[in-house]
Amino acid sequence: MNIVTLLSVVIALLIEQFRPLAVGRWVSAPLGAWAEFLESKLNAGQYRQGVIAWVIAVALPVAVLETAYLLALWLAPLGALLLSVLVLYLTMGIRQFSHFFTDIHLALRMGELDRARRLLAEWRQCSGDRLSSEEVTRLAIEQALLSSHRHVYAPLLGFVLLGPAGALLYRLSQFFAERWGGGDEIRYGRFGEFARRVFAALDWLPVRVSAAGFAVVGDFEDALYCWRTQAGRWPDPRAGILLASGAGALGVRLGLPVAGEIETEDRPELGLGEEADVDFLQSTIGLVWRTLVLYVLLLTLFSVAGWVNG
């Protein structure tokens, strides 16, 4: 870990705050087109074909990036810094999801429940026309905790451990695991099984680091208690760890059945304390930012220590 790593993270975060990335145009649309091309050529519902597709879609770009980065380090260190900043800008950022959360928060503050429902439905890609204000708040907090992990903390950890290739590996693996391994067996069969397994392995450590971050900057004892006793009840174990720790850190109750068309099964109660209300949305913003600041401070300390010892 060195000063270049720290500079890359700080510069990328600053650029993203002042110039948010148009994710749909520069990330989602190209990846969607790439995925459709590979599906048209390789998807016949077989596991082996899914392995080949994952190698082409994920492993090959990561290998190319790692080669380019190592060459840049050797030939032009400034180029390596710029490449790192570019990769982080494309793979990591709070502004990639925070506009949904901010708009929902504002709508609920203004009493515009229908607008908050529409925004939440767009964010989660699920309808929820009959959700109450408390249910909208609960689901928005859950989505913010999950999104902060996927869009910020996990790519950041991948970058710290493996450089730009680590951040790219995480985000590409996440995208294709959700696309191919998301449960559409009629369309994909076993084609997405390998992508799903690889991402589960890659996400094992980042999930726990993110959950630990929530605990450190929030209510530590309640976060650990909820993590230990409640996370295993959630259908997706990785999401359960994040949501249980986050709920305990915030002192709010998450999970629980919700009304309307959003899936209500397998939503056990998570967290301790009060029912979710609009004030907890502001608390969630604080938790997300404090966790990010904690990671940047730790990165700074390790970078400075490495520079001094070097």
How would you describe this protein?
With 310 residues, the protein is mainly alpha-helical. It has helices at residues 3-18, 23-42, 47-75, 77-91, 98-109, 113-124, 133-162, 164-180, 185-188, 193-202, 204-217, 220-230, 237-250, 279-309. The mean pLDDT is 92.
Relevant terms:
310 residues; mainly alpha; 14 helices; globular
Number of helices: 14
Helix/sheet category: mainly alpha
How many domains make up the coordinates?
1
Helix content range: over 70%
The low-confidence runs, each spanning 5 or more residues with pLDDT under 50, are: none
Radius of gyration: 20 Å
Helix and strand run: HHHHHHHHHHHHHH
Strand content: under 5%
Gross morphology: globular
Q: Would you count the extended β strands for me? A: 0
CA-to-CA gap between the ends? 11 Å
The largest sheet, given as strand count, sense and whether it forms a barrel, is: none
Give the mean pLDDT: 92
